[in-house]
Specification:
The complex is a heterodimer of chains A (556) and B (180). Chain A has 17 helices and no strands. Chain A is an all-alpha fold. The chains are: A mainly alpha (556), B alpha+beta (180).
C-alpha cells in the first residue's frame, strides 16, 4: 500500500508546470526585493537616523515607504509565493497535471495585472494609505481595483486546484487524499471564504465613494468587513508554512510525519475557526458591542489550540528525525538535525520565532489586556514574528530546494545561505523584542517615532535596537535574494544523475488509518459557514441595516 | 481502541488493528500536551473574565453615533472640553480629533479625579491612547468612543493619536495634567 502511494506521486512536474510555478516565485521574490528596502529606513528612522531625504527616489515620505513595505511584503510576496507553492503541492501530491491549466494561467496573470495596476498609484504617491483599507482615508481607485484583481486571481487559481482535486477524487474514492494536497485546498478554501469581507468592503463601500456615487463611507462597517478578512489573512500566510513543517520538513531531516490524523484535524480547525474572530482586532473600536468582542476573544483562544497541536506534532516529527540521525538524550536530537542545510535551518528558526509570535498572539487576543498594546509598536513587533518570520523564513527555506528543483541547478553558496538565516534570525530577535518593549511603554505603531515630539529620550536604547535589528534583518534577506537569483541564472547545472526531489514525508502510521471523517469536506464546510453566521451574522446585520454612508473621503 | 492505548515512544508502531478508522490515534504525550494546551487557554479566559467583571477593566462598547459633518452644531461636540460633574471627583471630557490635533489639546484635572473621555473624529480615523492608563480607543468618524480612568498620581500624561491619519500623524498629541 505504501509502495502504491509512493509510485502514485512519482510524476515530476513538466517543464511548463515548472515555469508556471517559477513565475510565481519570480514575481514574489521581486516584490520582496523591493519591499524590504524600506524596512531599515523605517527602523533607522525610529532610532533617529533619517535616510528619507537622502533616498527620496525610493519614497517621498515615511508613509509612502511604509505602504510599499506592507503591500509588497505582506500582500504580494506572500500571495504570489503561496499560490505558486500550493500549485506545486497539488500537482506533485496528486501526481497529475492541473485539470484546466488555462484556468490557473488566467488566475495568475490576473494577479500580475492587479499588481501592476495597484503599483502605479502607490509609486505615484496617490495611494499612501498603508495596507489597511480604512476609509474615509482614500487612495486612487486603481489601488483598490488592482488589489481586487490580485485577490480574485488567487481565487481563480484556487478553483483550478479544486477542479484538479475533484477529478482525482472521482477516480480514487475511499483513498485518503495526500496530506500536502489536502492542506493546500484547506488553505485556498479558507482564503476564499475569508476574502469575501474585503471584497464587499471595496466593491460596496470604498469604490462607490471614491467614484463619487455615494456621499461617503461608513468607517465602522468598513473596519468590520476589513477585519473579517484581516485576521484570516494571517492564517493564509501561516498555513502554507504549517504544510511545510508538517509534511516536508520531517522528510528533509530524515524523519516522518508524526500524526497524519492530528495534522488534518488541526487544518480543519483552522478552516472553521480562522474567520469568525475578527473583532479581536477591534477591541478598541467604538461601534462594536463589548459582548461580541468577548465572544470573538473566546473564538480566538480556540484557534490557538490547533497551533499548539501543530507545535507538538512538528516537534515530535523533528525529534523522530533527529533520533534516527543518531541524536541522543533530552536535547541531543536537536543538535543532530541537519543544521548545515539552509532550507532546514531557515525553517527551524522560523518555527522557533513563531513560538514567541504565538504567545504574543494570545496576549493580543486577551480582550481587556489588549488595551495595553492596541495600535502600539508591540503589534508590528508581533506580526514580524508571524508573517516576517513563520511565513517568510519558511518560504525562504522552501525556496532553497524549490529553485534548484525548478531550474535543475544547484543552490549557489549553501553555507552562505545558512549564515543568512542566522543573520536574519538575530536581527529579528533584536528588532522584535525592542518593538514589543517600546509598544508596552506606549509608542504608537505606523508612526515615524524619530520625529514624534512625545517620545521620551530614555527610549533611545530600545529604538536603537529597532534600528540595528531592522538593518541586520535586511542583510539576511538581501543575501537570500542574491543567492536564489544567482542560483537561477548561473550556467552550472546539477551533476548528471543528481535530481532534486520535492520533499514529502511519509506518515509514521498508515495514512489509510486516518479516520474517513477527517477527509470529508461537506461537514466541515457547513460547520465553517454556521460558525461564521453565528459569530458575525447578528453584528453584520445590525451594522448593515444602520449603515450611514456619510463620511466624506480624505487623501492623506 | 488506539485512542485508549498509550504509546510511550515515538517509534513507528504499526497499529494494524483493523477497525480504527473512526478513531484518531493519539500518542499519550500528545494527549497530555492537548490537556495542557486546553488548560492554559481556559485559565487565560478565566483571568480576562475576572479582569473584566470583577476589576471592571472594560473595552469600549457601542455608545451611539454622531454625524461627522455636523459636529459644529451637535450638543457637547460643538464645545469640546472639560466638564465638571462633581467638583474634585467626577469629570467628563469631550474630545474632537481633527487632522492633526485634538481639541482640547491640554486638559487639567485635580488629583483623585475620575475622568470619562468621550471622543469622536471630524474627518478620518484616529486613535486615542492616554499614557499610563487603560484608556486606549479608536476614534472613528460617525462613532462615539468612551473610556474612563482614575488619576491619583499628579503629573503630565500625554495622549497620542495612534492611527495613521495623514502626513502630520506623528505630531498629533495632547497633554493631560493632574494637578497636585
Amino acid at each position: 500500500m505504501i509502495e502504491d502511494r509512493a509510485t502514485q506521486s512519482a510524476r515530476e512536474l513538466t517543464k511548463s508546470e515548472k515555469w508556471f510555478v517559477g513565475w510565481h516565485v519570480i514575481f514574489a521574490t521581486a516584490a520582496l526585493s523591493i519591499g524590504i528596502q524600506y524596512g531599515p529606513m523605517q527602523a533607522l528612522q525610529h532610532a533617529g537616523v533619517d535616510l528619507y531625504p537622502k533616498l527620496s527616489f525610493l519614497a517621498s515620505s515615511y508613509y509612502q515607504g511604509l505602504t510599499l513595505h506592507g503591500v509588497l511584503n505582506a500582500l504580494i510576496w506572500t500571495t504570489f509565493f503561496i499560490t505558486g507553492f500550493l500549485t506545486l503541492a497539488v500537482v506533485k501530491g496528486l501526481g497529475r497535471p492541473l485539470k484546466y491549466p488555462w484556468l490557473n494561467q488566467i488566475g495568475f496573470w490576473m494577479m500580475v495585472v492587479g499588481l501592476v495596476t495597484a503599483a502605479i498609484p502607490i509609486l505615484a504617491n496617490k495611494a499612501t494609505v498603508l495596507y489597511t483599507f480604512y476609509p474615509p482615508m482614500e487612495a486612487s481607485s486603481l489601488f483598490y481595483i488592482g488589489l481586487v484583481l490580485v485577490v480574485v486571481g488567487s481565487w481563480i487559481e484556487g478553483y483550478g486546484m479544486y477542479f484538479t482535486f475533484y477529478e482525482w477524487r472521482k477516480e480514487n474514492p475511499g483513498t485518503r487524499s495526500p496530506f500536502v494536497v489536502f492542506a493546500s485546498l484547506v488553505t485556498m478554501v479558507m482564503w476564499n471564504i475569508a476574502t469575501l469581507g474585503i471584497a464587499a468592503e471595496i466593491l460596496a463601500i470604498i469604490l462607490p465613494s471614491v467614484f463619487g456615487w455615494t456621499a461617503g463611507t461608513d468607517p465602522q462597517l468598513s473596519r468590520t468587513l476589513f477585519w473579517y478578512t484581516g485576521h484570516p489573512l494571517v492564517y493564509f500566510w501561516v498555513l502554507p508554512a504549517y504544510l511545510s513543517w508538517y509534511a516536508m520538513l520531517p522528510k528533509q531531516v530524515g524523519g516522518k510525519m508524526f500524526s497524519d490524523s492530528l495534522a488534518r484535524l488541526s487544518f480543519w480547525l483552522f478552516l472553521i475557526l480562522s474567520v469568525p474572530l475578527g473583532f479581536h482586532h477591534q477591541f478598541a473600536d467604538p461601534g462594536v458591542p463589548a459582548g461580541w468582542k468577548f465572544i470573538h476573544a473566546l473564538l480566538t483562544f480556540s484557534v490557538a489550540f490547533p497551533s499548539m497541536m501543530t507545535l507538538f506534532t512538528v516537534v515530535a516529527s523533528l525529534e523522530y528525525g533527529g533520533r534516527k540521525r543518531g541524536g541522543k538524550g533530552l536535547f541531543g536530537w536537536i543538535k543532530a538535525l541537519p543544521w548545515g542545510n539552509p532550507s532546514v535551518t531557515w525553517q527551524l528558526l522560523a518555527g522557533l520565532l513563531f513560538i514567541f509570535g504565538g504567545i504574543g498572539g494570545i496576549v493580543n487576543a486577551s480582550y481587556n489586556v489588549n488595551l495595553a498594546l492596541h495600535n502600539t509598536a508591540w503589534i508590528p513587533g508581533h506580526f514580524h514574528l508571524t508573517v516576517a518570520s513563520a511565513a517568510t523564513m519558511t518560504f525562504v527555506g522552501i525556496s532553497f530546494w524549490l529553485v534548484p528543483y525548478l531550474t535543475g541547478k544547484p543552490l549557489w553558496r549553501p553555507k552562505l545561505a545558512v549564515i543568512a538565516g542566522w543573520t536574519y534570525f538575530g536581527g529579528m530577535l533584536l528588532f522584535s523584542n525592542a518593538m514589543h518593549v517600546v509598544g508596552l511603554l506606549g509608542a504608537p505603531r505606523r508612526t515615524p517615532l524619530g520625529s514624534a515630539p512625545y517620545i521620551p529620550g530614555e527610549w533611545a536604547g530600545h529604538l536603537w535596537r529597532v534600528g540595528i535589528g531592522g538593518t541586520i534583518m535586511w542583510i539576511g534577506l538581501m543575501l537570500f535574494i542574491v543567492i536564489v537569483a544567482v542560483t537561477a541564472v548561473q550556467r552550472k547545472k546539477l551533476p548528471a544523475g543528481v535530481t532534486i526531489e520535492v520533499p514529502i514525508a511519509e506518515s509514521l502510521h498508515d495514512v489509510q488509518d486516518t479516520p474517513a471523517w477527517l477527509d470529508r469536506w461537506r461537514p466541515w464546510l457547513i460547520a465553517s459557514v454556521v460558525i461564521i453566521l453565528l459569530s458575525y451574522g447578528p453584528q453584520l446585520y445590525e451594522q448593515i441595516t444602520q449603515v450611514q454612508l456619510t463620511s466624506p473621503g480624505f487623501t492623506p | 481502541m488506539s485512542d485508549e492505548t498509550p504509546q510511550d515512544d515515538v517509534s513507528p508502531s504499526d497499529s494494524t488493528d483493523g477497525d480504527t478508522k473512526q478513531h484518531i490515534h493519539v500518542d499519550s504525550y500528545e494527549r497530555n500536551w492537548i490537556r495542557i494546551s486546553i488548560g492554559f487557554l481556559v485559565f487565560f479566559v478565566i483571568m480576562i473574565t475576572i479582569a473584566g467583571l470583577a476589576l471592571g477593566i472594560q473595552v469600549p462598547t457601542d455608545e451611539g453615533r454622531v454625524d461627522p459633518n455636523t459636529l459644529d452644531t451637535a450638543p457637547f461636540w460643538s464645545e469640546p472640553g472639560l466638564r465638571e460633574i462633581v467638583p474634585g471627583e467626577e469629570y467628563e471630557v469631550y474630545i474632537v480629533a481633527r487632522r492633526f490635533s485634538f481639541e482640547p489639546r491640554n486638559i487639567a484635572v485635580p488629583k483623585g479625579a475620575h475622568v470619562t473621555f468621550w471622543a469622536t473624529s471630524a474627518d478620518v480615523q484616529h486613535g486615542f491612547a492616554l499614557e499610563g492608563t487603560n484608556v486606549n480607543m479608536m476614534v472613528i468618524p460617525g462613532q462615539v468612543s468612551k473610556l474612563a480612568a482614575q488619576f491619583d498620581e499628579p503629573g503630565e500624561y500625554d495622549f497620542i493619536c495612534h492611527e495613521y491619519c495623514g502626513l502630520g500623524h506623528a505630531v498629533m498629541y495632547g497633554t493631560l495634567t493632574v494637578e497636585p
